[in-house]
Amino acid sequence: MQYQVFTDYDALSEHAAQFMLELVRQKPTAVICVASGDTPLGTFQKVVANALPNDFAEATFVALDEWVGIDPQNPGSCRSYVEKPLIEPLKIPAERVCFFDGMATNLAEECARVNEFVARRGGLDLIFVGIGTNGHIGLNEPGSSFENYAHISDLQDVTIAGGQKYFQDATPLTQGVTLGLRHFLEAKTAIVIANGPRKKGIIGRVLNEPINTALPASVLHQHPNGYLWVDEAANAKN
Ligand code: PGA
After folding, report:
1. Cα–Cα distances in angstroms (integers) from residue 89 to residues 43, 47, 166, in the given order
2. H or E stretch at 4
3. Candidate CATH numbers 3.40.50.1360, 3.40.1390.20, 1.25.40.10, 3.40.250.10; the one for domain 2-193
4. Residues near 164 by Cβ (< 8 Å), separated by ≥ 6?
């Protein structure tokens, strides 16, 4: 795992955006998994601002996760967090985007559909994610097996409480659907980004703890091409 610290959120976002743009310029058919949440928004904004007209003409996106039972049109849905700032401005057509439907009647089938979407395209070239204060990646909560592909996850209280910030009204959250840590390990490149003092504690744990399923983000240590990029406020190394 390569650890890199940037002066601030803007510099971190700029670096991540340039990495993504470089990827699609070298491999136009790249398959990219992106996370929702607040952390990637700066990167998305810079990707959109700096993309040349053909940069994403053949690229495919896969959204990392979704809250179970939340309407995709809800502004707080994971889909909205990826679609509005990234997919719509880049004009990616529906056939080159995969979102989980958290309202699917059969969630196991929904996970199988997303697994199939990724597998049929030869796997992920890049998985680009944030990190929760409990160390989750996507909605792979502590205890999630590194062998998991897409699956249904029971959310921890900290994730349910933290997730409220995306919604205007108090929103009952209990489960999520998410790509699995196996997807993370099999992606050609895996990037985790974090910013702000709220993430410093968990970054310290990722840096200092050995690989263990109680800390999902420790999976980074096992990735041959894994990066942990943080801003100065989230830096946990002297
Ligand atoms: P955030 O969420 O980017 O909104 O901080 C990250 C996460 O919980 O994975």
Report:
1. 13, 10, 21
2. strand 2-6
3. 3.40.50.1360
4. 170, 171, 173
Pocket test for ligand 1, best of 66, 131, 133, 192 (most atoms within 8 A of CB): 131
For residues 150 and 166, what is the distance between their CA atoms, to the nearest angstrom?
23
The model's pLDDT over 3-27, given as tens digits with 9 standing for 90+, comes to: 999 999 999 999 999 999 999 999 9
Q: Mind listing the pLDDT tens digit for each residue in 87-96?
A: 999 999 999 9
Catalytic residue from among 66, 83, 125, 136? 136
Alpha-carbon span 156 to 175, nearest angstrom:
9
Q: Confirm whether 141 is a catalytic residue.
A: yes
Show the tokens assigned to 215.
Answer: 């800390």
Residue 198: both structure tokens together: 């709220």
